[in-house]
Amino acid sequence: xxxxxxxxxxxxxDYGYNLRTARxxxxxxxxxIDAPCSKGCPAGTDPGSFIRSIRFNNVKGxxxxxxxxxxxxxxxxxxxxxxxxCEEECSRCGIDKPIQIxxxxxxxxxxxxxxxxxxxxxxxKKKPFKVACVGAGPASLACAAKLAQAGYQVTIYEEKxxxxxxxxxxxxxxxxxxHVVAFDVKTVKDLGVKFVFNTKVGKDVDLNELGxxxxxxxxxxxxxxxxxxxxxxxxxxxxxxxxxxxxRTKKENFYPGDNVIVIGGGDVAxxxxxxxxxxxxxxxxxxxxxxxxxxxxxxxxxxxxxxxxIGMTTNMAPAEVLGDKKIDGMAFNGRDGVxxxxxxxxxxxxxxxxxxxxxxAIAGVKVTEKGRVKATASGxxxxxxxxxxxxxxxxxxxxxxxxxxGKDAADSIIAYLAKKEGVK
Amino acid sequence: MAVKKDLSIEYMGVxxxxxxxxxxxxxxxxxxxxxxxxxxxxxxxxxxxxxxFVADECSPRFDQNDKAGLPWIGFKxxxxxxxxxTEKNFEFLYKLKKDYPDKVVVSSVMGSCxxxxxxxxxxxxxxGADLIECNFSCPQMTSHAMGSDVGTNLxxxxxxxxxxxxxxxxxxxxxxxxxxxxxxPAAIAAIKGGAKGISAINTVKSITSMDYENMTGxxxxxxxxxxxxxxxxxxxxxxxxxxxxxxxxxxLAGVHLSGIGGIESWNDCLDYMLVGARNIQVTTAxxxxxxxxxxDMINGMAHFMDEKGIDDxxxxxxxxxxxxxxxxxxxxxxxxxxxxxxKKCVGCGRCYVSCYDAAHQAxxxxxxKRRPSINDECVGCHLCLNVCPVxxxxxxxxxxxxEGRKPVDIKVKQDYV
Lengths: 424, 417
Fold this sequence. Notes:
A: 424 residues, alpha/beta, Fumarate Reductase Iron-sulfur Protein, Chain B, domain 2, FAD/NAD(P)-binding domain, five-stranded parallel sheet, B: TIM Barrel, Alpha-Beta Plaits, 2 domains, eight-stranded parallel beta barrel
């Protein structure tokens, strides 16, 4: 018999460090001359520096490094795919196992909060330019923070009632507790960035009328995707986004059903399955159409799901939603053309990727055939004053990559506005 | 098959089942503690120092310091001698010797004047102790007539050694303070006075770390602190140096030495024995880990002796002394160039950084391949070997002879842990 982890929906999945255990871990660091871990971080969080700071008993310095480089350092510490980024680059892998960089980052950010540090500052004298950011997810927050620190007046428009985007609505709280996101968001707010919630740009407000000097689109992917299979409109069929949001909103008052099937192989699929399991569903099963090796989710996420007693089947594609008006099962076809699978289900969640909503409604930017905003690596679109980055451009990557892209787009915006300033 | 070795050794004319003793400290302060230690395997005890003076202790009284999260590299204590009535302590000794006749009970004593030393000597013998140790070395006594203030005063050391030696037939040991430049004169004074053995070292006067709340040292006693004795791993190299000096001193030839300072494993015991200690005393490691540590001392030492084909543990005493020579006797004609194993190297660059910033800029760094290589500037200091975090990645390699020096056969260490 295997011991299965039992925990509540909001219980944290992992333990943190205290000063003593953090320093013990930092002691394992080889303090590499070229810090390959730092090169492995898309957002430039610079673990090489902050681990060194912890090693030499300078926790405040560590927290400063993180916040300065990655405005979402607290959230990234919880959800980054370290095994594919900084920790994969760690030289200590050549001896035994990498330094637990994510956990050290978490510790430093927790200390930042506990010690009431104020790490970032926006200049008191503002530049005479206003920038709007569309969406309050990682890309926008990173872009807004950088612009605010450079003295620009930034307003973030968010359709929902809270900031954070996928961090707030798309990940289980066991993996990313709300207070962690809230603290990251607070550091953005403290820079003087204004937040306008419950306001959808292009529908509730027209940017052209608000007189912004530049616009950043970091709207993410909130268009839902369901496959075109028989029975897809039955009650009990969920998109991942709606399912996770329901969990986040109602918490323990949401019971998805006894038998829940999650379809997909990404982190979002794992999050949906974990949500169902932690909310009390007895049988939770992930079904993926390819192999685990091909799955985009992290191995650590799969392992977490397994530790909770969640089952997994691969090489099975959804064929039909079974049941009368309400779902009572799912049928799958095997990838090999021979196998098949039928599972009892009270709910099925499709976590097979999201797509952008209609971005042309925002500012008339050019989009790709998949509806993504067409933008360069530095966030420039076809319109001089409109910039874009994050999932809405890249089609859905990690939060840490969105932070990097948001920062880069901010640089482009600063360069664009600097030219205008010269003219003024 | 599990190894079994006879670790018994004769020390100061007393047969000891093994050389591993508790030193006079909090770890051997009453009957129950010492009884438990004996049951666990300790060969003997230097009982917590008994005086006519009964200590009045402060709270708190301990601190430890760390390195990069590793705690207890050193330990500081402010405790003095026993805080129990003199008679009570001698009752403990009497009962221990009665119940454990095969274990060795050493009466550690401290007087503040000649009369007290005499009195304590007589009482020790009456209590049935096997040996007497004179504590001339506690650095945190509240009276200057006792402790290391006596141990640094050669006349007093000799006078008190003589006073106590005259009134007892028990062999007397003098416990030395390391808070001096050289220890030999104090040891010689003790022997002149009639002592037959020397123990070293007592604790090193110290301030471990500062407290920023009260702007004082640790531990904080009502907002202030005091300088007091430091022990544990960090002082082992200092203790070994003193033992080696005493063991090599012609005026102390034949004097039995007991080694103290930072001992926690069998090889710490072995290290002290190799430089001349015939007996081993431990406190700090027991304070951190308990009496149980003696089991690995006994077993580990037995395995070492088995490996080396040694049956008599006393053969180890001073075995390394002939190979410890004055700096002027070292052969300085050659340099041993380290060799770097690129396959084992993980590319951290620590050797490069240390060599550049702290040695001779003798390592080149290939930042694309992330590999170091040794250049012609190398002087063979082996700083790189010492900082490399990978086992056996950097080891001694080619021997180069300095210009005009005559090559001879030399020994190079190859096995690094």
